[in-house]
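Researcher: I'd like a candidate sequence for this fold, 590 residues long. If you have to choose between options at a position, lean toward the conservative one.
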């Protein structure tokens, strides 16, 4: 086994070299897609700045979507949203473990027959995947049933998914195989190159996903979510030996939100203690470990581009780079982790390169993980599905320019269950009440985050003046005059009522109502933005007629309607939220 480890270490060192004796093969006219999905990679802690091959091949040669968001900031729900194009409240996969999440929940909801790889195969695309698929996809349940829709696969399996030096992979219909002692990302790189070889040799258009678990923290699992009492031990990510010496003096960016002197946030977060020097020093080490672990991913990116070029198919291939969710280290006094609605956790990398995509370009149009499945289908000229909760992402310079005026300005953000600290320091157990609904909205003259927690605390941040989300404008601890003009020259109370009505639609929306929620409130189409809704002609509508507000009945771990509070459901008026307009309930005028 040690010999095997040496083999893969050497393979990792050679990751940037050309494949041996490869000759360009004739390609189809249909484009291919290579999707690289990292695990827990941040957009706000500068990780992309430490990845020179991502910079060279993707950022310099593609379009960087700086306002791309996940909708649920934790692994499994986010990945299910990504593969289905549906928000978590519509997949009902809302946690990483059963009973509310994980691979068993994905199966029980019937999604194994109704997600992207299945649709791609139906459209005559070959599909390949290596790396992490979902949580609680294990050495025990990998074949009960097998994940559907893959021409070839080599999955990482629990309880070894997050063990950098003890990965277990499962290829096609074969039994799982342990790679104890080998570096997980290097093992994955060799599997990725093999799958690419198979894809090209098949002479069919293909979709290849590479899902390394870096820079996720290292996790020793004594059991899985299938067991009654699994024990998980978290530690910093482990780099490949060749990268251990890098970035010796690098620290977590010292932004205003890093370990602030005054508490911030709401619910359990505002009760966190300030971290001492020893804790901060450990978090800097944790941060460096993440950057080091990403170096093998960066080499994988270079290896893939080298092979695409050598095969002569690079110009006919879209390459998409993203992560399942973001990450925080020290912001708001938080220990390393995710699961919050703050910008570090929900704003994630998205870079796209390919035919017609602008090179060395950046854009701030709003995009989300709900948009990726529609985007993939549109790229491959496959009809979109009517139940998508997102829309295709504009890719050409002209479509991006048009989207500035026409695209939705909001992202739905939602979460259920607890938030775990992933370093060596304890976290406050009140984090079990980490359920919330939120929205992120950007438009001309405003840049806002609004949330309602399951304990019914509210948050509102003006991210134009407070980009680090330190001053909650709706905090009951502060003496803020809600009647004063603040944003867009309207009172905070007027603004908050509009945002709450919008969130009430989004927390239970389906399909295009998630993309165009203002139409649910104003079916005549006269309101399409927050700025439109703030017109004084709608004051009575929002302030007097709509008495139902977003709130929770209780804090629970999963998506349970009895706890969710009022729902906006035009298909079921008896259980829906009753809005009134011109004296009529909403279901008579929608």
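Model: Candidate sequence:
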């Amino acid at each position: 086994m040690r010999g095997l480890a040496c083999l893969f270490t050497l393979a990792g060192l050679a990751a940037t070299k050309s494949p041996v004796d490869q000759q360009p093969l004739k390609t189809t006219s249909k484009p291919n897609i290579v999707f690289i999905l990292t695990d827990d990679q941040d957009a706000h802690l500068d990780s992309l700045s430490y990845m020179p091959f991502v910079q060279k091949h993707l950022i310099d040669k593609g379009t960087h979507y700086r306002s791309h968001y996940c909708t649920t900031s934790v692994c499994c729900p986010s990945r299910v949203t990504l593969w289905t194009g549906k928000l978590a409240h519509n997949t009902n996969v809302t946690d990483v473990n059963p009973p509310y999440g994980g691979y068993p929940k994905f199966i029980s909801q019937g999604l194994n027959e109704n997600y992207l790889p299945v649709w791609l195969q139906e459209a005559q695309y070959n599909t390949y995947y290596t790396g992490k698929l979902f949580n609680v996809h294990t050495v025990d349940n990998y074949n009960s049933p097998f994940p559907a829709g893959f021409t070839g696969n080599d999955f990482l399996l629990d309880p070894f998914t997050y063990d950098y030096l003890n990965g277990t992979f499962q290829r096609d219909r074969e039994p799982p195989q342990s790679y104890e002692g080998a570096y997980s990302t290097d093992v994955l790189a060799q599997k990725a190159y093999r799958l690419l070889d198979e894809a090209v040799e098949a002479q069919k258009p293909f979709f290849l996903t590479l899902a390394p678990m870096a820079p996720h923290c290292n996790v020793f699992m004594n059991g899985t979510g299938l067991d009654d009492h699994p024990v998980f031990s978290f530690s910093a990510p482990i780099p490949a030996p060749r990268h251990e010496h890098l970035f010796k003096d690098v620290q977590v960016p010292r932004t205003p939100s890093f370990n602030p002197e005054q508490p911030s946030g709401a619910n359990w977060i505002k009760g966190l203690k300030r971290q001492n020097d020893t804790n901060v020093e450990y978090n800097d080490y944790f941060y460096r470990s993440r950057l080091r672990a990403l170096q093998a991913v960066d080499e994988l990116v270079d290896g893939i581009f080298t092979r695409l070029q050598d095969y002569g198919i690079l110009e006919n291939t879209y390459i998409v780079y993203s992560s399942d969710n973001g990450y925080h280290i020290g912001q708001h006094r938080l220990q390393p982790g995710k699961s919050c609605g703050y910008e570090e956790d929900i704003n994630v990398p998205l870079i796209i390169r390919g035919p017609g995509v602008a090179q060395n370009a950046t854009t701030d149009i709003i995009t989300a993980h709900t948009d990726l499945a529609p985007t993939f289908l549109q790229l491959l000229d496959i009809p979109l599905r009517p139940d998508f909760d997102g829309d295709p992402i504009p890719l050409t310079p002209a479509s991006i320019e048009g989207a500035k005026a026409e695209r939705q300005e909001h992202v739905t953000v939602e979460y259920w269950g607890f938030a775990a600290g992933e370093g060596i320091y304890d976290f406050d157990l009140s984090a079990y009440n980490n359920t919330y609904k939120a929205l992120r909205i950007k438009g001309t003259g405003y840049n806002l985050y609004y949330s309602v927690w399951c304990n019914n605390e509210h948050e509102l941040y003006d991210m134009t003046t407070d980009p680090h989300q330190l001053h909650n404008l709706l905090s009951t601890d502060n003496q803020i005059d809600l009647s004063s003009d603040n944003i867009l020259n309207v009172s905070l109370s007027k603004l908050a009522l509009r945002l709450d009505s919008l969130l009430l639609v989004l927390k239970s929306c389906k399909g295009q109502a998630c993309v165009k929620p203002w139409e649910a409130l104003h079916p005549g189409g006269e309101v399409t933005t927050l700025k439109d809704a703030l017109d004084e002609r709608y004051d009575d509508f929002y302030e007097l007629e709509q008495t139902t507000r977003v709130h929770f009945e209780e804090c629970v771990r999963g998506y349970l309607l009895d706890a969710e509070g009022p729902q906006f459901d035009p298909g079921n008026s008896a259980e829906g939220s009753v809005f009134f307009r011109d004296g009529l309930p909403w279901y008579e005028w929608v």
